[in-house]
TrEMBL record:
Key words of the record: Membrane, Transmembrane, Transmembrane helix
Protein known as: EamA family transporter
Membrane spanning stretches: 33-51, 58-80, 86-108, 117-136, 142-159, 171-191, 203-228, 235-255, 261-279
Pfam hit, one: EamA
Length: 291
């Protein structure tokens, strides 16, 4: 990987890692649904020129938009809203990798060897260890929500692998335009006061909303797509594990997260399991090759 490309992927990891802090700041004043709605409305304004129908791909595009857009971020921001520990959320959301691997077996008929099964088991085991930490157990709902967020992202990732001829900006435009209307509708039905709260929110909260839209989505996802066009997934994916590590660092240094022994051990288990999965080569038709 060339130095400029290495710098780009490090920037992506930095942007994504800091997004956990930014999201936590935003949900101090806005609900998860309101934050998700505004995020994707701002993104829609920027990406509207790229919106176009892609024949034969729209069903999958809609599935990706719903799962990786509204559903994933609403659950993740909700988890941040009720959890005092940002580090736990940053680690837990990495379950999207083992979830995606499991789904690829059933949906895409991909072969998974014993090393990746071991990685899946270790990563899930790490989350179990974290879940029973006293610092987390009192707000176990947050862990449950982040697991759902990871599952939504995994469904979107597997569906995305089946897309053909859909540009990254076109896909992001559809994700944006299909995500904010249901979020605003649900907010209007169950949290109507949030519309007033959003216009009374501080500049810091609105800055956080803008960061999630333009930093995490545009810089992060566009940068990752650019790199995946030039390098193998097995090279790029392991480096992105730096994002949750940075999320933990930011959580401890900027938000005052408490790092207990269980969280450290469970976090290392989860990241190690994800690393084992990410480092495996693409599935081989010969099972002996994977063993």
């Amino acid at each position: 990987m060339t130095p400029p490309h290495l710098a780009l992927i490090l920037l992506v990891c930095l942007v994504w890692g800091f997004n956990f802090i930014v999201g936590k700041v935003a949900v101090e004043e806005l609900s998860a649904m309101m934050l998700t709605g505004w995020r994707f409305l701002l993104l829609t304004v920027v990406l509207l020129p790229f919106l176009k129908i892609v024949p034969g791909q729209m069903v999958r595009v809609v599935i990706v938009a719903i799962t990786m857009g509204a559903a994933h971020f609403a659950f993740m921001f909700a988890a941040l809203g009720i959890s005092d520990n940002i580090s736990v959320i940053a680690i837990g959301v990495q379950l999207n990798v083992p979830f995606a691997t499991l789904l690829s077996v059933f949906v895409l008929s991909e072969f998974v060897g014993w090393r990746r099964w071991l990685g899946i088991a270790v990563s899930f085991g790490g989350v179990v260890v974290i879940s029973f930490d006293p610092a987390v157990f009192t707000a176990l709902e947050g862990m449950g929500l982040v697991i759902i967020a990871a599952l939504m992202a995994a469904i979107g990732m597997v569906t995305m692998r089946q897309l053909a001829g859909v540009g990254v900006f076109t896909l992001q435009a559809w994700v944006a335009i299909l995500s904010w209307p249901p979020m605003f509708l649900l907010t209007g039905l169950f949290q109507p006061e949030q519309f007033v709260a959003s216009f009374e929110a501080s500049w810091l909260t609105w800055g956080a909303v803008a960061y999630t839209a333009f930093g995490a989505s545009l810089v992060g996802h566009v940068g990752m797509y650019y790199l995946l066009q030039r390098y193998e997934v097995s090279l790029v994916s392991p480096i992105t594990l730096l994002a949750p590590v940075l999320g933990v660092v930011f959580g401890v240094t900027l938000w005052g997260d408490e790092l207990t022994a269980r969280i450290i051990i469970g976090g290392l288990m989860t990241l190690a399991g994800v690393l084992v999965i990410a480092l495996r080569k693409p599935p081989s038709p010969d099972p002996a090759a994977e063993a």
